[in-house]
Structures are given as structure tokens and as C-alpha cells.
Amino acid sequence: MENLNHIARKITAILFTQQSLASAGFIAASTLNSIVGKELGHNAAWAGVPAAVYLLGGAFAAFGWGFVFDAIGRRGGLVMGLILGSIGSGIAFSAIALSSFALFLVGMVLMGFANAAVQLGRFAAAEVNLPENRGHAISNVVIGGTVGSVVGPFVAGPAGEFVKPFAGSELAGAYLVSLVLFAIAALVVFLGLRPDPREIGRQMAENFPETAAGSGAARNVLEIFRQPAALVALLSMVIGQMVMVLVMVITSLHMRGHNHGLGDISVVIASHTFGMFAFSIVSGRLADKLGRGPVILIGSATLILACIAATISPDVLPLGVALFLLGLGWNFCYVGGSTLLADQLSPQERARTQGTNDLFVGLASAVGSLSSGLIFAALGYNVMAYVSAIFAVIPFVATFVWMQKTARRVQVAS
Q1: In this structure, is residue 213 part of a structural domain?
Q2: Axis-axis angle for helices 262-277, 316-343 (nearest 10)
Q3: What is the mean pLDDT of residues 357-385?
Q4: Rounded Cα distance, 23 and 130, in Å
């Protein structure tokens, strides 16, 4: 058992490192995606398209990655995804230099593929840990994004100045940074993620069969998501992601319209991504100690508050606080939902079901990204934020009802 615990800690540490590097690359790019969309598309309505394409690419890739992760292992899948991310970043960099919107979208698709693979890394950490430690393990991976939240937005400006003489635009610098960071992350995973989490997860299930959900043949995905707990987990991640994307994606352009420079925009996005990742250790521990449901309730309520707060003022401080709360609410929904879903799955169901889950998450966030640009162009930032707040009510109600029914069943059984 001690050996398995040591391996689990090592695997989690490697996944934390790759999450830190990759998130810095993704966040550096996402800071500018809406601005690049407007510049290359020559219309504010196109601002959300790059993020939507990126998220759609990730959504459909997530489903495929589930099968890839089962076929070649978590290590091979993550390395492949990060290499695709490096290629996509290079294409996006070239597209900005060439002023080609179509080529930029190709780069976004490949970066979306990479993000889908990286996000599945949180489940690799869960499968090598026992249920009482899964929330903590997932949060230890997600918290790697804190590095990205600090590094990512702030490299956009300096990198832009560096590449402007030969790329023709300061907007290209962030994508060169992403290319380098993805390549380093791929090397870390290739060298360090041994043994493969897939094999350790199977060994854990054999040694501790009472901790593995399900018995007999693997259930199909539809059957799994018919279970109330799995459905609540799915809703918390899908709606939480969509709400976060709706507001976050367009905030850079909203600030640009109020004459904020890249420095101010970077501060607000950094506060948002700090909220997304820095408190993962808290949400993970709470998920293990208080339960998955209360954590999702806290996350949903925080998302509602954040969306309303975003309408107060376009100044840096109010927007920074609102976007921080937006990230924090997403984190609680994401960690709580991920842990709850991991609890419901047997080893043979994990990669396929988790990939399907992330397909829905990606589709919802892609819809949110595309809608944000359209709503912003037609009705403005505040209306978009209020719409987002209404959506955030859904996981709150679903989780509350599930918890009440579960408590009644336990009471009757006792």
C-alpha cells in the first residue's frame, strides 16, 4: 500500500507540473483570443469565434481522447495532445503574422485538441487515489493552473513587444510562448509519467475492490448519466464552464472598448485565472470532508454573484473582483463535479465516460463563447452577464434537489 501511495504522489506531482506549464500556455493565448478575433475578422461579432472554435475542437476531441487514453495509456495520450498544442500555437502565430483569420482558426482547433487532453489529466490523478483522497488529488492537479494564472496573462505584453518587429503584431507573442510551454510539458510527461496511471488505477481496483463503483460488465455512457449523482456531476461542470466562458471570453474586448490597455486587461484576466486555480486545494479538501454536493452549491452561488458583480463597473478593480469570483465559482463546480463523477465509475468505464463528460463540457463552453460575442455585439456586456447568472441557477437547483433526495433515502434506510 505504501508503494502505491508513493506512486500516486509521484503521478500527481507530474500531472501538476504539466498542468502548470500547459495552463500558462493556454491562458497566455486566451487573454488575447477575442481581440485577435475582432482584429482578423474586422468585426466585434467575430470576437468570440476563435474561442468557440477552440472549445469545439476540444469538445469533440475529448470524446476521442477517451478512447485514445484507453488504447495507448494516459502518458501517451497526454504527450500526443501537447505536441498537437505546440503545432497549433505555431500555426496561430503564423496566422497573425500573415493576417489570416482562417489559418488562425486552424491553430485554435489544434490548441483545443491539446486542452481536451490536458484536462483529462485530472481524472488520471483521481484513478490512482482512494475515494477519500480523490478530491484532494484532483485539486492538486487543477491548482497547477495557478502558475498559468500568474505567468500566462503577464507574458502577453512582453512577448508581444519581442515578436512585433518580425511578426508585425504584438498579439502574436503569446502564441509563441504557448508553443514553447507545450513542448516542455510534453517532455515532462514523456519522461516522468511512469508507471502509467491507467495501470495503477487497475491495480488499485484489484487491491481495493470495495472502492470501485459498478460491478460486472461496464455500463454504457447513457446508463451511467441516468444515475442522479452522475447527472448532477455533469450539470455542475457543463453549466459552470459555460457560465464562466460567457463572461470571461468577452471581458478583454469589453475592457478594450473602455480604453484599457493590455496591462489592465492582463490584471483582470490574471485575477480571474487566479480565482480559477489558486483555491483548488481548498475546494478539493472540502469535497473530501464536507461532500461533493455542498462544494457544487458553493460554486454555483458564487457564479451567480460574480455575474451580477461584473455589471457594476468597467473599471479595473470592480471587474477584477467580479472575474476573480467567476473563476472561484467555476473551480468549486469543476472540482466538486469531477470528484463526484469519478466516484461513480469503475476502472473500465473511466476514460470513455470522462471523455464523454468533457465533450459536453466543451460543447457547452463553445456555445457560450460564440454566444458571448453575439450577445455582446447586439445587447451589450451587462445583458450577457445577467443571462449567465440565470444559467448558473441550474446546477444550484439540481444539486440541492439531489442532496435532499439522497438524505431522505439515507434516513429511510436507517
Answers
A1: no
A2: 30
A3: 83
A4: 26
For 54, 325, 414, the CA distances from 391, given in Å and listed in that order, are 22, 16, 36
The CATH number of the domain holding residue 251 is: 1.20.1250.20
C-alpha span between 185 and 163 (Å, rounded):
22
Name residues whose C-beta falls within 8 Å of residue 210's C-beta, 6 or more positions apart in sequence: none
The number of domains in the chain is 1
- What's the Cα-to-Cα distance from 149 to each of 144, 266, 267, 315, 324, rounded to whole Å? 9, 10, 10, 20, 11
Place of cell 486552424: 106
Query: Helix, strand, coil % (nearest 5) of the chain?
Result: 85, 0, 15
Cα separation, 246 vs 41, whole angstroms: 19
Q: What percent of the chain has pLDDT over 70?
A: 91
Is residue 260 left, alpha or beta, with left meaning phi > 0 and alpha meaning psi from -120 to 50?
A: beta
Give backbone dihedrals phi and psi of 314, rounded to 5 degrees, phi first: -85, 5
Cell of 356: 464523454
Contacts of 343 (CB under 8 A, 6+ apart): 131, 134, 213, 229, 292
- Of 1-5, 242-246, 353-357, highest mean pLDDT: 242-246
Quote the pTM value.
Answer: 0.73
In terms of Cα–Cα distance, which of 112, 382, 409, 354 is closest to 257?
382
231 domain-assigned: yes
User: If DSSP codes are grouped into helix, strand and coil, which group holds residue 383?
Assistant: helix
- Number of CB atoms found within 10 A of residue 366's CB: 25
The residue assigned the cell 475529448 is: 62
Vertex 361 angle, CA 82 and 330, to 5°: 95
d(CA 336, CA 280): 10
Determine the straight-line distance between the first and last CA of the chain, rounded to whole angstroms. 33
In this structure, the number of other CB atoms found within 10 A of the CB of residue 311 comes to 19
- In this predicted structure, the answer to whether residue 209 has a pLDDT above a threshold of 80 is no
The Cα–Cα gap between 372 and 33 comes to 13
The domain of 239 spans 2-208+219-413
Length of the chain: 414
Helix axes 145-167, 2-30, angle to 10 degrees: 40
Q: How far apart are CA 345 and CA 143, in angstroms?
A: 23
